[in-house]
C-alpha cells in the first residue's frame, strides 16, 4: 500500500536550542540529540545522517498529532539528571528553496517531559543540514497521513 501524503505550509521559528546544544542556558552543551542518539540507535533508529538539532516548524493555526509512528521508544533513560522519557518518530519530507529533504518528526512525549512545553502547532523535525534556512522562512512539510494527522 502506498502512503498517502499531505502537505502543510509552515514557517521556521526559534526553538529552545537545547537539542543542538546551542542554548547558553542549556545544561547539555553537546545537545540532547547527541546524547539521545546512541539510545535511538540501540532501539533501531540511526539518526547519524541528520543534523543533530531540530527545525521547529509552525503550522499554526493547524495542529498535528502523531497517530501511528514508525518508531516509539518508551522509558528512555538518556540523562542521569532526568526521569525516563518516551519518544516517537514519523518520517516526513521538507521542501525548501525548490529542494526536498528527507526528515523525521521528533516527538518527545509531553507527558514524560517535565517542565517542557511544546505548542501542538509546532512540528519539531530532524533532517539533513539545509544551507541558508533561517527563522521566518516558509517551508512545506509533507507528512504520511497514515502516520500523522493535520488538524
What descriptive keywords fit this protein?
151 residues, mainly beta, Elongation Factor Tu (Ef-tu), domain 3, six-stranded antiparallel β-barrel, two-stranded antiparallel sheet, 7% helix, 40% strand, globular
Helix content: under 10%
CATH class: Mainly Beta
User: What form results from the Cα inertia axes?
Assistant: globular
The mean pLDDT is: 88
What is the string of SSEs from the N terminus onward?
EHEEEEEEEE
- Strand arrangement within the widest β-sheet reads 1-2-7-6-5-8
The secondary structure category is mainly beta
**How many strand elements?**
9
Walk me through what this model shows:
About 20% of the residues are buried. The chain has one helix at about 30-40, and strands at about 5-15, 55-60, 65, 70-75, 85-95, 100-110, 120-125, 140-145, 150. It contains 1 helix and 9 strands, in the order E-H-E-E-E-E-E-E-E-E. It is globular, with a radius of gyration of 15 Å. The chain is about 5% helix and about 40% strand. The mean pLDDT is about 90. The strands form 2 sheets. A 6-stranded antiparallel beta barrel has the order 1-2-7-6-5-8. It has a two-stranded antiparallel ribbon with strand order 3-9. The chain has one domain (about 5-150): Elongation Factor Tu (Ef-tu), domain 3, CATH 2.40.30. The protein is mainly beta and about 150 residues long.
Amino acid at each position: 500500500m502506498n502512503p498517502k501524503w499531505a502537505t502543510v505550509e509552515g514557517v521556521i521559528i526559534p526553538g529552545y536550542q537545547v537539542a543542538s546544544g546551542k542554548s547558553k542556558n542549556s545544561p547539555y552543551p553537546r545537545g540532547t540529540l547527541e546524547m539521545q542518539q546512541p539510545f535511538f540507535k540501540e532501539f533501531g533508529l540511526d539518526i547519524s545522517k541528520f543534523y543533530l538539532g531540530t527545525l521547529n516548524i509552525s503550522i499554526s493555526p493547524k495542529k498535528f498529532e502523531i497517530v501511528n509512528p514508525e518508531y516509539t521508544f518508551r522509558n528512555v533513560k538518556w540523562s542521569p539528571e532526568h526521569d525516563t522519557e518516551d519518544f516517537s518518530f514519523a518520517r516526513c519530507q521538507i521542501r525548501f528553496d525548490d529542494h526536498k529533504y528527507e526528515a523525521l518528526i521528533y516527538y518527545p512525549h509531553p507527558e514524560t517531559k517535565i517542565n517542557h512545553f511544546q505548542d501542538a502547532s509546532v512540528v519539531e523535525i530532524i533532517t539533513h543540514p539545509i544551507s541558508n534556512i533561517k527563522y521566518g522562512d516558509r517551508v512545506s512539510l509533507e507528512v504520511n497521513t497514515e502516520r500523522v494527522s493535520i488538524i
